[in-house]
Amino acid sequence: MGHFQQLVTFIVLLMLSIVSCKPNLQLNTHQTFIVRVQNNLKPNRYANHKTWYKSTLKSLSFSINSSHTRTQHNHGLLHVYNTVFHGFSARFTPQQAEELTNRPEILLVLPDRLLQLQTTRTPQFMGLTGTKDTHGIIKESDSGSNVIIGVLDTGIWPERVSFHDHDLGPVPSHWKGKCDGGDNFPENLCNKKLIGARYYSTGFYERQQGSARDTVGHGTHTTSTIAGRHVANASFLGLAQGVANGIAPKSRIAVYKMIAIGAFGAMEKGVLFSASGGNDGPTDSTISNVAPWITTVGASTIDRRFPADLVLGDGRVITGSSLYTGHGLPEGKYLPLIYAGNASISKIDDDEDDATCLPGTLNKDLVRGKIVLCDRGDGPRAEKAVVVRDAGGVGLVLANVEPMGEGLVADAFLIPGLAITQSKRTTLLQYIKSTNNPKATLIFKGTQLGVKPAPVVASFSSRGPNSISPSVLKPDIIAPGVDILAAWPDGVPPTEVATDKRRTEFNIVSGTSMSCPHVSGVAALLKGAHPDWSPAMIKSALMTTDLHGRSRWQDSTGRERLQRVQRLWFWRWTRGP
Ligand SMILES: *[C@@H]1O[C@H](CO)[C@@H](O)[C@H](O)[C@H]1NC(C)=O
Ligand SMILES: *[C@@H]1O[C@H](CO)[C@@H](O)[C@H](O)[C@H]1NC(C)=O
Ligand SMILES: *[C@@H]1O[C@H](CO)[C@@H](O)[C@H](O)[C@H]1NC(C)=O
Questions:
Q1: Where do the Inhibitor I9 domain residues begin and end (predicted)?
Q2: For this structure, is 513 an active site residue?
């Protein structure tokens, strides 16, 4: 078995589309494409594949015409890929892509796009109790110390204490990867923990730094979830306080700031490929990354919440979720409540106001001094608190609407605010309509542990059935993905609000991107304990046994559980696409 196969577990954590970066398919515009090539068709006259690719680009009529590519001696060639798939990336127009597609050696031409990031207690919650464990895969794998995890994401903030290399043995001698220096990222930032750093930024990461440094946050968060070292007294502004550690704290990390394709090639090379299933639930058939060889991960809750209460004027209490850590309302101070749908200056249609609190939509005269009920919808959730504040409002209630249902994620709002479920929204609207003087107060309750039931599948977690091949059941597995604490870079606000001036070493984020690294971490532990296992064996073990190697379907109620699972399969099977 090759070293690569033995040692590398590649993990993919990117997903979905940042609205402004959707592929722009205007016919005459140059954009970056990724081209997969059938490499064994290379004619002998080319010394190597790169020369061949350049020649391919050059030979196309468009290369000669395009001023954009003509100025580049590589004829527009941006990157050559040769690990998990073969091919290159280059800039040309969609029309020209079409032309390329007709060539026999070209397998696929894909527009390169910045995918939307789908973007601690979880190790304990999952049954991994830490390095002092005397049994189980933590021990057997020595916390994954011989496993190298490739993380394809937005890069890393290498100075975070989660990535120190104290007490780690030498870098596995078989490691052949590189640590590329770059902007604000000297090579010597790599160590025995972070053993590789590459960036492929010429294309769509143009707006980012030319190095593996993470200027988004996503990659730092996911990487520390997979393999962060133990950090005492970690918290987000005092919330979720405790020892933070990744699932495979001794595994080595190689970060690749890039997008993720070529999973099948990775699988063939003995690399397990896990990917997030997407955050488009709970609507049916929203699951992405559905190829059978990918381990597709959905998101669940854990037994930790960040509860906040909205106490209504009539004494009823609506409990929601919040990471607000500023000054609350003075105790017993009730403020008037208003529904944004009745305080908006922008109309959806003739009789309905926009209730989603987008920037500039609130009527200041109606909102001033009030708690505003906003519906979820377009725009970052935390931004709505800023919109309310800028309109003179003093509190935010952010409500789920159809089809979001009863799942909540917590946000670090900049004014007193909480998220509530769809059914609580109904209750609250009824209350607002029922009285001439609707009012409420807010109470924030910090971190609550031991919440039951857990895990519960997150409502945002994308659902099956698999729309491409309904007989391939997806997602394969769930893992913690709601309100997950992990490391965060400097210089990046903890919310998606650009004007948020707060800076934190850890952040709490939700998404299937947060659940995927938990599975990647456990896969690394399994690989460390069983170096001879293939990716398929690891995937099978992940799906059918618990962390102590016991079958998921056999316990005191084993038979019953198996029947339930079969019924579920049958239900999904018969339901069809
Ligand atoms: C290249 O330029 C020539 C002359 O302007 C034009 O006739 C031809 O159609 C162009 N080819 C492409 C692919 O744009
Ligand atoms: C733990 O962190 C909190 C919040 O950052 C801080 O207030 C507290 O002093 C720290 N405790 C210790 C023992 O370092
Ligand atoms: C919104 O305004 C309309 C018209 O004044 C009123 O009938 C309705 O009850 C209001 N809805 C809420 C939720 O305040």
A1: 32-118
A2: yes
Q: Which residue has the tokens 């994401």?
A: 153
CATH numeric code, 2-18+120-302+458-575: 3.40.50.200
Which residue ranges make up each domain of the chain?
2-18+120-302+458-575, 31-111, 307-446
Q: How much is the pTM?
A: 0.76
| pLDDT attached to residue 62 | 52
Catalytic residue among 66, 162, 201, 513: 513
Give all strands (DSSP E) within 331-489, no chain letters.
335-339, 371-375, 395-399, 417-420, 439-444, 448-449, 477-480, 484-487
- Asked whether 496 and 383 are in contact (CB, 8 A), the reply is yes
- Please identify which of the residues 141, 143, 153, 520 carries the catalytic annotation: 153
User: Which of 28, 58, 61 for mutating ligand 1's site (highest number of atoms within 8 Å of CB)?
Assistant: 61
Give the residue from 533, 565, 536 showing the smallest Cα distance to 551.
565
pLDDT for residue 263: 52
Rounded to 5 degrees, φ, ψ at 513 are -65, -25
**d(C-alpha 280, C-alpha 490), whole Å:** 29
* H-only helix segments in 245-391: 263-268, 364-367, 383-390
Q: Which of 342, 370, 426, 428 gets mutated to test ligand 3 (max ligand atoms within 8 A of its CB)?
A: 342
For 393-420, the pLDDT digits (tens) are: 999 999 999 999 999 999 999 999 999 9
- Ligand 3 centroid vs 433 CA: distance in angstroms? 6
Correct CATH for 31-111 of 3.30.70.360, 3.40.640.10, 3.90.850.10, 3.30.70.80: 3.30.70.80
Instruction: Give the ligand whose atoms come closest to the C-alpha of residue 430.
Output: 3
Q: 481, 266 in Cβ contact below 8 A? A: no
Residue 87: its pLDDT value, please?
A: 85
Torsion on CA atoms 511, 211, 505, 165, rounded to nearest 10 = 100
Give the burial string for 318-356 (b: 16+ CB within 10 Å, else e): bbbbbbbbeeebeeeebbbbbbbbebbeeeeeeeebbbb
Q: At what angle do helices 218-227 and 512-529 cross, to 10 degrees?
A: 30
- Ligand sitting nearest the alpha carbon of 429: 3
Cα 431 to ligand 3 centre (Å): 11
Q: Identify the CATH number of the domain defined by range 307-446.
A: 3.50.30.30
Identify which has the larger pLDDT, 208 or 132. 208
pLDDT digits (tens, 9 = 90+) for 455-494: 899 999 999 998 888 888 999 999 999 999 999 999 999 9
Mean pLDDT of the chain: 81
Distance 334 CA to ligand 3 centre (A): 21
Residue closest by Cα to atom 11 of ligand 3 = 433
Q: Which residues line ligand 3 (CB under 6 A)?
A: 339, 342, 429, 432-433
Quick one: which ligand is closest to 96's CA? 1
- Return the pLDDT at 422: 97
